Amino acid sequence: MGLGQLFGKDKDKKEEEKSEQQKIGETIKNLSDRIYELQKQLQQRNSEIDQLTMQLAEAQRQAEAARGAASVEQLTLSATQDALRDANARMRELEAQIGQLAKEKAAMEEQAKSAGAAIAEMAGGKPGLAVGATAWVQKAGGKNLRRRSAPGLNSQVHDGLAPGTQLTLLEGPVAADGYHWWRIRAADGREGWVAGEELVTSPE
After folding, report:
1. I need a labelling partner for 64 at 20 to 30 A (CA). Which of 50, 108, 118, 163 fits?
2. How far apart are CA 117 and CA 74, in angstroms?
C-alpha cells in the first residue's frame, strides 16, 4: 500500500470522527435547548401554582364568610347556601388545577434531569454533572481550578477556584482541547468556564 493510500485512509478517518463530533455537538445543543425551554416552563408553572394558591386561599375565605353569614338576617338561607356551594366548588376546582400543575412540573423536572444526564453521557462527562446541578472543585492534587472566559485552553484565565469550592453548573458540557467544559457560578457570584474533569459531584 502506497503512502497516498495511507494518507487517504487517515484523512477519511479524521473526516468521519469530525462528522461524528458534529452530530454529537448538535444533539447536545438540542438537549440544552430543551432543558432551557423546560426551565422556562417550570418557572411559568411555579407562577401559575402561586396564583392558584392565592385564589384558593381567597375561595376558602369566601367559604368561611358564607358560613358566618348564615345567621345574618340580610341574607336569606337560600342565598347563603348558594354562596357556600359556589365557594366549595371553586375550592375543589382550584385544588384540582394545582394538583395537575404539580404533576406537570414533576414530569418536566424529570425530563430536564434525563436530558442533562444524556448530555453528560454523550460528551463523556462525569455522571451526576448536569445543568442546574451542584459540583465542587476536587481536592485531589491541591491545585486551584482555572476559571476561564470561554471553553478551551486558549481562552483568557480570570483566576483560580480553590479546591473544595462549591459551584452551580449553568451550561455545558462543551468539548474542547481534550476537556469537557462547564459554565459555572461560584457562591460569591463569579462566573466562567472550567474543565469538568476537575469537578466532583459531592464535597470531599
Report:
1. 50
2. 63
Which DSSP string corresponds to 110-139?
A: HHHHHHHHHHHHHTTPPTT--TT-EEEE--
Q: Which pLDDT tens digit goes with each residue over 45-93?
A: 777 777 777 777 777 777 677 666 555 545 455 555 666 677 667 777 7
**Comparing C-alpha atoms, which of 145, 150, 153, 143 is closest to residue 178?**
153
In the chain, the amino acid numbered 16 is E
CA distance 134 to 117: 14
105: its cell numbers: 412540573
Sign for the CA dihedral angle at 163, 116, 112, 192 comes to: positive
Cβ(166)–Cβ(132) under 8 Å? no
Peptide bond into 173 cis (omega under 30): yes
Q: How far apart are CA 168 and CA 182, in angstroms?
A: 10
- Diameter of the chain measured on Cα atoms: 107
Three cell numbers, residue 19: 462528522
What is the strand order of the sheet 199-200 is part of? Answer: 157-161, 145-148, 191-195, 179-186, 166-176, 134-137, 199-200
Q: What is the pLDDT of residues 140-185, one digit of tens each?
A: 778 899 999 999 999 999 999 999 999 999 988 888 888 889 999 9
